[in-house]
Structures are given as structure tokens and as C-alpha cells.
User: Fold this.
Amino acid sequence: MRIAIVNLKGGTGKTVTAVHLAAALADQGRTLLVDADPQGSALSWSEEAERLPFAIVGLPVRDLQRRLNDLLPGLMHAVVDTPPGDRAIVRSAIAATGIILVPIPPSIIDLDRLGPTLDLIAEVDATSRTQSFVLLTRVRAATRSARLTREILADMGVSLLEAQIPLRESLATSFGTIPSGDNPYRVVLDELMTKELAA
Ligand SMILES: Nc1ncnc2c1ncn2[C@@H]1O[C@H](COP(=O)(O)OP(=O)(O)OP(=O)(O)O)[C@@H](O)[C@H]1O
Ligand SMILES: [Mg+2]
Assistant:
């Protein structure tokens, strides 16, 4: 399985999602996390954590498709963490993977900024087939924001995962730690696998 974590807006939870999803995938087979963000947040995370359960490389490049094909023999899974704002890198990550996960907190400002990301995915989809899903992150318990966001996204015709990630102190402070495979992203992975099998 190859998954790109994409949102052109900054601070939506891409890196936290990439690292925890890679840890969940690593329970199932050899997994590579590609840090395609020139800021190198996932790489810094791995320096702090030292022994993550997956391999990690920094590749902030615009030809990820070719490079990932070179790297993938021997690996079962790859997750690509992408930067905000750099359309060329994000485009190549989308083309290189095929499964696109767009993390977004349930807030109006994040919804308002989603358009360019969806447009870019649609652009790539016109030439190479992709499956893309929006994932709600930082969802506050017992509030209406997630339900309202789901309604708005449904009206926009967006594919939204049923799984969602709660706002959690343990995730907010997880930078530099070693996530277990059994983290809140496990249910995200289960749902993605069901969708991939169904495609
Ligand atoms: N489920 C969560 N609960 C609480 N805090 C979270 C959660 N997910 C992410 N965060 C926090 O939200 C902030 C943004 O997360 P993250 O760095 O993953 O976003 P990003 O999209 O990778 O940002 P950038 O666009 O700058 O690369 C971080 O401070 C992170 O710790
Ligand atoms: Mg990031």
C-alpha cells in the first residue's frame, strides 16, 4: 500500500498522521516513510525517537514516482509526508502513491482552504488513477463541529472516511516519540484497506 498524506494548508496534522499510520502499517510488513517536506519534520521526529518501527528517508523532490519505484522492491508499504504549499512536490507524491489521505481539523478555516488541495488531486487524477479520502483530525469529543464538517464535506461531494482522529494530548505531544502500531490510526488503516480491496 502506498499512501500520500496531503494538504496544501499548513498545520492540519499531516506529519502526525504520516508517522502514526506508518507505525500501524509496520505491524503488517516492511514500511518506508518518505519525508517529502523540505522542513524535514518527520526526519527530525525520527532523530529524536531513534528507533522507529519503519525506515525513513528524506526526499523533498519533484520526481517521487520514479524514486519510489526504485526504492520499493522489498518493501510492502510506503507513506509519504508532504509539505504545505509546494505544489510540485505534492503533485509528484500524489502521482507516486495512488492513495491520498487529506487530514483536516473540523474548522471553517480549514474547510475554506481545502479547495486548492482537492483541485490538485483532481488534476493528477486526470492522468494517473488515485483514490482520495478526507480524514477528520483533532476532533473534540462532545462537540458539533465534526458532524457539521461532515455535512459540509458531503455537500462538496468529498469522500470522507468514517474513522476520525480525536484531539488527544498524547498525539499533540507525540513528536519525537515511538508510536505503537496500536495507535488511533489503526482504524484509519483498517478502513483504507477495506476501501482498497473494494476498488
Ligand atoms: N489528534 C491530535 N490531537 C492533538 N494534537 C494534534 C493531533 N494531530 C496533530 N496535532 C498537533 O497539531 C499540530 C500540527 O500537526 P502536524 O505537524 O502533524 O501538521 P502538519 O500538517 O504536518 O503541519 P505542516 O503543514 O507545518 O507540515 C502539531 O502541534 C501536532 O502536535
Ligand atoms: Mg508536517
In short: The chain has a mean pLDDT of 94.
